[in-house]
Every structure is written in C-alpha cells, then in structure tokens.
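Backbone-to-sequence.
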C-alpha cells in the first residue's frame, strides 16, 4: 500500500487548485446568485487537458490514471459543485462509457472530440417517473430500417443546454423491463431534440441542469451503444464511474468546509478567545478532518481498483454513500460554526450546504447505497463479470 500521491498527481492537484483559486472562487458567488452557468470555465479546463484526463492519448485524452480524475474532481468541487458536476457528467458518465462500450468508429467520431474538450457529452437516464426505478422509464426506441426512432423525455440532465452529445437510454422492448433497455448516442442537432433548463434549484445554481425532449428523433443504427437490451448494464457501469467522481467531489467539499471553518475559527472571538478554543467547535472541526481522511481513502481505493481493471461497484457505492453524507454533515457544521453569518452568502458555507444536498440524492440515493451495502454483506448481491470492462491503467498503446 502506498498512500502518497505520485509526482504527476501532486502536480495536477496543484495546477487545478491554482486554477480554481483564480478562475472560479473570485466569481462563484455572483454566478451562484444569478443562476449563471459559465461555459468558458470548461473551455479553459479543456486547454489544460482536464476534460479527458483519464482517456487514453490515442483517443484524444491525457492518459492520466483514474485517481488523478478523482483529484481533479475534488479540487473543482472545492471551488463549486457545478464544475465538478460538469466533469463528472462529461468525463465520468459519458466519455468513460464510450471508452468502455463504444466501437472503434464510435470512439473516433464521439470520444476523441470529447476527450479534447472540443465537444461536450451528457447522460440521459433519469425521467420524471423513473429515478431509482430505472425499469420504469417510458422513453422508447423503435427500429425503423437503418434507424431507431426515439420518443420520450429525460429530466435532471446536467449540461442539457450546452452538451453536443447525449447518451440516451430507451426501451427497445418494453415487455422485458430491465432487459429491454438500450443505449443510444444522440446528437443535439438531430431533428426532434429540444432542451429546457430547470430553474429554482436549491443548490448547484451555477450549473446547467434541465430536461431533454425527444420527439420522433431518428438515430442511425450505428449510434446504438453496445447491443440491444444491454442498456441497463451500460447504465450501471456508467454509474460506477459517475459515482466515483461524485464521491471524489464530496472530498473537495469537505475540504472547502474545513478550510473556511478553520479560517473563521481563528478570526471570530467569543468570551475572550477564538471560537476554535471552544471544545464543541473543535468537535465539529475534528469530524470534518476525520471524515475527509475516511472519504479520501474510500475514493482512492475505488480508483485503485479501476486502475487494476477490476469491478468496483461495491467499493464505489460505499465511497459515494459515505463521502456524500460526510460532505452534507460538514457543510451543516460549517454553517453552525459560522453562526448567523453562516446563514448569509457573505460567507461561502451557505452555498456549500445548499450544494451538498443534491449528491446525497443523485446517482443512487443514500438509501439505495445503504441497501446495496447490506445486500453485499448478507451475500444477496454479487457482481458478475461484464462483457466489456473499463481499460486498466497504464493504458496500452
């Protein structure tokens, strides 16, 4: 076991932290208050080769290992959850899924420009009546000659208004439930694709989130990802990657809460001493520090399994559950430490609290992950080999 970052990982961490301090933190209060998504941040991340960090160089990526992706996500969420979410969706849910399941032609056409940051990818699984219950989706795909015709809608789709390509899951055989779901690469420019942003969100207000509508969208059969009926497996494999990045981001949010709280503890005095001298405040600080270490270890373990080319559904689920719950608790405590000022956007902790709630819900609620971990422990659940695995790192030439 080696708990040290490699020189390359340490350099990336430093680079992204500097980027966040210069390009996100000075502006995020206004962007959040205005509900403004700033796409130029993603362009600058692409210039740093961070939109395809863990995609092999042969497909336009930087060829970094999967734990470097975790480091990038943690540092981005230290700035704001919106930008970690963008990388989670573009890289974790979309590009890594293309890397794992795509044909060579699909990789050349879609993965290469996405890894370079020239195109943005999104992920369309959730529907108004199908969240945790994926089999309840109503979106359909009907084969018609050399195409599939898609009808339906998706909701809570990050990057909905700015993504160039979507991975859309639809039922090719509604009678087969999970086994009747297939996955399609859908371009925004296909006739019948429209999107609409969701307003009034509790948090992640600087992110673009919304609905995708599909009305008689004709998709070439070459854009079927995997095989017909393989969509559910593809979606769950994609969530292994998405959940990994969400857990990594939660580490960054805990770090941000700890950083802000420690600073305030030294600035604020009550009863003649810094509030950091009060033991109940110290208790909250101690929990943040301990949970940051715990969450990081769980994330890096999952990343190590990815690097080894091994299944990591159980470990990633645990990391996502524990890290996101810990981030929510850290943000809540950070507001408490700041007292009345924590209730104002004069300090960043109120934004941290609002942002911390969504990851406890999306990509598997904490209740879903609790059940998963119990079923693993009880022997009711086990992970079978997939027909295609995410490539191990270092990547083969």
């Amino acid at each position: 076991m080696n708990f040290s970052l490699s020189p390359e990982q340490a350099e990336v961490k430093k680079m992204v932290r500097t980027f966040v301090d210069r390009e996100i933190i000075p502006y995020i209060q206004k962007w959040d208050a205005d509900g403004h998504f700033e796409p130029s941040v993603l362009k600058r991340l692409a210039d740093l080769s961070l939109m395809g960090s863990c995609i092999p160089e042969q497909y336009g990526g930087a060829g970094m290992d999967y734990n470097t992706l975790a480091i990038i996500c943690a540092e981005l969420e230290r700035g704001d959850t919106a930008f970690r979410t963008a990388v989670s969706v573009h890289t974790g849910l979309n590009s890594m899924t293309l890397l794992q399941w795509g044909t060579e032609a699909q990789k050349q056409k879609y993965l290469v420009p996405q890894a370079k940051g020239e195109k943005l990818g999104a992920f369309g699984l959730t529907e108004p009546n199908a969240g945790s219950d994926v089999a309840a989706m109503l979106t359909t795909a009907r084969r018609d000659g050399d195409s599939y015709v898609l009808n339906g809608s998706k909701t809570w789709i990050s990057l909905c208004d700015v993504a160039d390509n979507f991975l859309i899951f639809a039922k090719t055989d509604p009678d087969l439930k999970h086994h009747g779901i297939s996955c399609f690469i859908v371009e925004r420019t296909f006739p019948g694709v429209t999107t609409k942003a969701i307003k009034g969100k509790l948090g992640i207000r600087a992110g673009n989130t919304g609905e995708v509508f599909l009305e008689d969208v004709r998709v070439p059969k070459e854009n079927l990802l995997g095989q017909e009926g393989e969509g559910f497996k593809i979606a769950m494999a994609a969530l292994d990657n998405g959940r990994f990045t969400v857990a990594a981001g939660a580490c960054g949010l805990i770090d941000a809460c700890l950083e802000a709280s420690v600073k305030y503890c030294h600035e604020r005095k009550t009863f003649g001493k810094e509030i950091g001298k009060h033991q109940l405040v110290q208790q909250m600080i101690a929990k943040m520090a301990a949970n940051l270490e715990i969450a990081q270890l769980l994330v890096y373990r999952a990343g190590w399994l990815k690097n080894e080319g091994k299944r990591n559904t159980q470990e990633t689920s645990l990391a996502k559950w524990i890290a996101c719950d810990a981030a929510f608790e850290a943000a809540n405590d950070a507001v408490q430490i700041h007292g009345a000022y924590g209730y104002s956007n004069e300090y960043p902790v109120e934004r941290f609290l609002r942002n911390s709630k969504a990851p406890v819900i999306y990509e598997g609620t904490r209740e879903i992950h609790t059940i998963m971990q119990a079923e693993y422990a009880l022997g009711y659940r086990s992970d079978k080999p997939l027909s295609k695995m995410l490539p191990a790192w270092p990547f083969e030439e």
